[in-house]
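Thread: adenosine-5'-triphosphate complex, take 2
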Amino acid sequence: MRVEVVTIGDELLLGFTIDTNAAYISRVLAAQGINVVRRTTVADDHSAIVSAVGDALERSGAVITTGGLGPTNDDLTKPSIAKLFSKAMRENPDVVRALEERWKSLGRTGPLPKSNYTQAMLPEGAAVLTNRHGTAPGIWLQDEQGRWVAMLPGVPREMRGMLDELLVPRLRELRGGTPTVTLSRTLRTTGIAESALADRIDAATIDLKGAGLAYLPGPDGVDLRITVRDLHETDAEALAGRVAAKLKPILGTYMYAEGTTDLPAVVLEMCRSRALRIAVAESCTGGMLGERLTSVAGSSDVFLGGLISYANDAKVSMLDVDPAAIADAGAVSEPVVRQMARGARLRFKSDLALAITGVAGPGGGTAEKPVGFVWIGLDGLGDSEARSFRLIGDREEIRRRATQAALDMVRTKLTS
Ligand code: ATP
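Output below.
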């Protein structure tokens, strides 16, 4: 089955909203072996919707739209597609009832606003895709030749719920037979450049047996995505597994996780299994390291807390950094980062403590300590380590890379 996706919304074309819906639909359908063959984005404009959906229907006979189903005047998807199918719009009593019940269940007083009733206007002959996550119902419209359009809301959470719960089962049924799938596996690395990784993998001359291998560099490191297409699920999983097994020894300790697992989760688990507790002291990352650790549910048994010691005075008063060290070597220096880490460990009575101090930019760089120059310290288990890094990117990226490098120092320490 070949499907086209049309995402609808002025804000998408203006660039204020990133089109995550189209990406999500492509991913989910690929996993079902359904190919999204083209994606189009159009404005909240009647003729633009008619022409984009009409062209897509001509080509593939199978179209998913998102957006423009709301109660406001700029929500034109339904009437535009009804026109394409030469259908009149009619109020659907079941949808009216559902909207009224939802209004009451949310504790709203007074009658359902008039504009909400437009959400119950459906093209004649359309099937309702019930929206358990919001008000705008999704719509399935099909013609005599079996060509169909599925209209989903624009709000990503609502769209995802309806796609997963209603549309995917419907498409599986429509497709029938034993499906082939497109399946991906991701191996996550950090601390190695994309080019160095590629050299290692090229040197190993692995037979990928038709699997695709993509290098996806980002501030957290390089993800390697293995993709297998057009195989039955068990064969696809077996092939992806074989390729992953060949790659893992080549990636060595640079690999920290598989799938979507984040480095903080890996580090927390390593500490948990060794009954170690950790604290942090942050300067240029301003709490980002603590934020990343606490965003992992259940981190409280490992992560004790952190101090944001941004000003020099704060480093001295909160972490007992020697003012002479700051005066002699500067706030971004080895002695200071070691003292910050030790101060955090003593203050929190943790087993390990990480400290970060650096020049995140865009200003403040010097020839000796340019923007992106960061010291990271790790204190604990009878040892003190410090490493300097030259990180690239803008302020946000440098800060993110610094937190990743810091976490990786813990991982490396506990691995060796
Ligand atoms: P509602 O009934 O809730 O208004 P709707 O179908 O009318 O839903 P839109 O008004 O088009 O949806 O969009 C609602 C919000 O969903 C937008 O403000 C935008 O933030 C988000 N959104 C819309 N389309 C997309 C998209 N393709 N990708 C990501 N987010 C989107």
